[in-house]
Design brief:
One of its GO terms (molecular function) is dGTPase activity. This is dGTPase. InterPro entries: dGTP_triP_hydro_central_sf, dGTP_triphosphohydrolase_C, dGTPase, dGTPase-like, HD/PDEase_dom, PHydrolase_assoc_dom. Residues 55-261 form the HD/PDEase domain. By secondary structure, this protein is mainly α. The chain is built from 22 helices and two strands. The protein has a two-stranded antiparallel ribbon with strand order 1-2. A hairpin with a 4-residue loop joins strand 1 and strand 2. Helix 5 (101-110) packs across helix 12, helix 13 packs parallel to helix 15 and helix 19 runs antiparallel to helix 21 (419-431). The longest helix is centred in the first third of the chain and has 26 residues, at 59-84. The protein starts with 23 loop residues before the first helix and ends in a 9-residue tail after the last helix.
Amino acid sequence: MMDLNSIYSPKRLGIDATQDTRTAYQRDFDRIIFSSGFRRLQNKTQVFPLPGSVFVHNRLTHSLEVASVGRSLGSLVGEFIYKKEKEKLNKESRQFYKHNLYNVISSACLCHDIGNPAFGHSGEDAIASFFEKNESNFKSKFSEKEWTDFIYFEGNANAIRILTQQQSGKSEGGMGLTYATLVSIAKYPCESVARTKGILHRKKFGFFQSEKENFQKIASETQMIQENDKPLIYKRHPFVWLVEAADDICYNIIDLEDSHRLGIIDHDKCVNLLVDLIASLDAKGIDKVKNRLETISDKNEKISYLRAKSIGQLIQNSAKAYENNFELILNGDLDKSLLKLIQEGNNSANEILDKIEEFSVENIYNHHSVVEIENAGFNVMYELLSHFVSPILKQKKSKSEEKAIKLIPNQFLYEDGTDYQKVLGVLDYVSGMTDNYATELYRRIKGIEIGMRR
């Protein structure tokens, strides 16, 4: 079982600690907020394309809300650990779990999507598909593990890269976050060749070969349990479950709220789904909720109120699931998400959450506007990679290929690096683009739009 005194660390990757009135974990939150990678999330699609007059969530607002939910979960679980394990905790650990775990979880939630490329999951698919379709041209230039990183490109692994890598001309250690925050976003703590469907912590992968050494430092500093060496696999860290739960809670409920604002789901149906969910999680409090609902006349406000109550109940139930499975979590043996545990232990909640998921898949994630932007985004990202990857790998470049490379900012160019490092630089550039910037650049290099850019 993991030692609660050893699974967190205020140390930072690549830089020394500095004196400050804020705790190390509060500084993490502020560093993320002020980073360019986080700011770019404001123009990255969450689910719906940004419609202009009707507000829907983008990656940035989603991340802020997940951070808020994560703070609540971290506070509840931190208090639980403090009370349950007080005699086993040293003085520093008592302070950490009571007053800082929620800062760690909130910071991790804030940056959990920072590695996602433009256009949501279709951006990830475009990157993976580009390399799959060009296997005969490129595969021989890379090792098996490097090639697997590309053909299964993963936003979670890209997040670790963005947060920890040293770009050309920039500081060592990336954003310089604490090991505690970095380990909390590692949902899939294995390398790409170890990814295995059906195994929760290996369903995807969590770090590229370029960040393998850094990830090993993170794992060592936070006492992660190593499951295998070749390929490298760790068991999930105990903090990860809280970040995952915060994300699961938000997208299950908030995507429904967005669909209501856009008129995709009938108002009464949306109300009934959320009321039934709250009733399944808090039978004693549902009458009070219904009475309050009667006093609200605005339709959007009704849904906002029910969204808040639903999230509140899911937070309470997730914290309780964590407590009930605490030993499994510390041993690295839990194989289900906290939300899945809630569903398995509550038939009514399971039925309602299944209904919400079924509705979301049928009417939200397959809505024509969502499918349109996924198709468009796939093509934009694929074409941008086509424009940059082949030239970056050539020793002798044509004039047009040299011009293509000049479009890539210097911090993404690794001219003296390996082919793997050079391509990762291109992926850093393309995956970091906002939807708007990627679309604009695509239009310009294709000649669809010509002229001086301000």
